[in-house]
Amino acid sequence: MLVVSSAGLGIWLWINGQVGVGAIATATAMASRINGLSHWVMWESARLFENIGTVEDGMKILSRPHAIVDKPKALPLKVNQGAIDFEHVNFAYSDDKPLLRDFNLHIRAGEKVGLVGHSGAGKTTLTNLLLRFYDVKDGRILIDGQDIRDVTQDSLRAALGLVTQDTSLLHRSVRDNIVYGRPDTSEEAMIQAAQQAAADGFIPALSDAKARHGYDAHVGERGVKLSGGQRQRIAIARVILKDAPILLLDEATSALDSEGAYAHEYSDASGHVGIIIADGVTISASWERIEVNDSGFRHKNRTATSNDHDFTVFRRYKGTIK
Fold first, then answer.
1. CATH number at 76-159+244-322
2. Residue 173: left if φ>0, alpha if ψ -120 to 50, beta else—which one?
3. GO CC terms for this protein (predicted)?
């Protein structure tokens, strides 16, 4: 509109002999330039307001107060043996859907316990509560007799090593991902952890677009350049290197070949308290005790060992033996 108006006015003035052709050309070019700049300003203004909204949403998230904070006189957790107790625990993500009701579980020092049950039974919830991502509604959780609500969250999580089913890695080298929880470790200790996690078989063959190889190769955002099993093996190497007294393994070998998986990953876990979560019991069968509940942890769970009738029945139910 601006260009057309300028050209029309120039032609009218030229007809009346008030301007020359050069003035008309100059005015039309300037109007065209101003028109283009005005479109750019409007476009950038729209993007500016869009970015303001994004920043505002981000500030709301960053300024949100922590739902769970340490008590004013919270002390560091002292793990001597690693015994864990869930005492009369009640918990629900929403008030109308209780998940844990009067749940009790005692894990002795150095014991390896498998938690087996259907999806939605509350298995992963137990690890979330132990890590104190949520507080229990009633009851308490103890580690070596210390209520986890009375200790600092930093010391609590430093004592726990966690490997989950959905493992995400940093967009850094394999080395950086393994030593993430213990950056001051030696090269020899890092390689030994990778060997214990059976990750040394594929790491030397890794490479990236910048010709970095082996432990120096970058794994991509969230580890997209690796398979699910490779990501889990690197995560297992990381938790082995951390050497936390308590291991939490939430379907940590779901993407690995089942044969001998535990013999490789956790052969050096002796002396640690271990909790493994699984839908089936193929891997858990090598552990000392298995907590089985077909209907979830809302009701009293039962304990099964490899020689127990309940254990055999559950394995048949899951189709792991004939």
1. 3.40.50.300
2. beta
3. plasma membrane
Q: Are 291 and 115 in contact (CB under 8 A)?
A: yes
Q: At what angle do helices 2-15 and 21-62 cross, to 10 degrees?
A: 160
pTM of this structure: 0.68
For 38-70, the pLDDT digits (tens) are 778 888 888 888 888 888 888 888 888 888 889
SS3 for 161?
strand
Tokens of residue 288, six digits: 């000392």
List, in sequence order, every residue forming a beta bridge with 292; answer none if it has no partner. Answer: 116, 302
Choose among 235, 199, 196, 239: nearest CA to 215: 199
**Ranges assigned E (strand) in 193-295:** 246-250, 273-278, 289-293
What residues does 207 pair with on adjacent strands? 213
CATH for the 168-243 domain, from 3.40.50.720, 2.60.40.640, 3.40.50.300, 3.30.110.40: 3.40.50.300
Let me know if 245 is exposed, middle or buried by CB neighbors in 10 A (0-12, 13-18, 19+). buried
Instruction: Record the tokens describing residue 207, joined without a space.
Output: 């490479």
- Residues 155-181 as b/e (b if ≥16 CB within 10 A, e otherwise) read bbbbbbbbbbbebebeeebbbbbbbbe
What are the sequence ranges of the domains in the chain? 2-62, 76-159+244-322, 168-243
Q: 173 versus 289: which is more confidently predicted?
A: 173
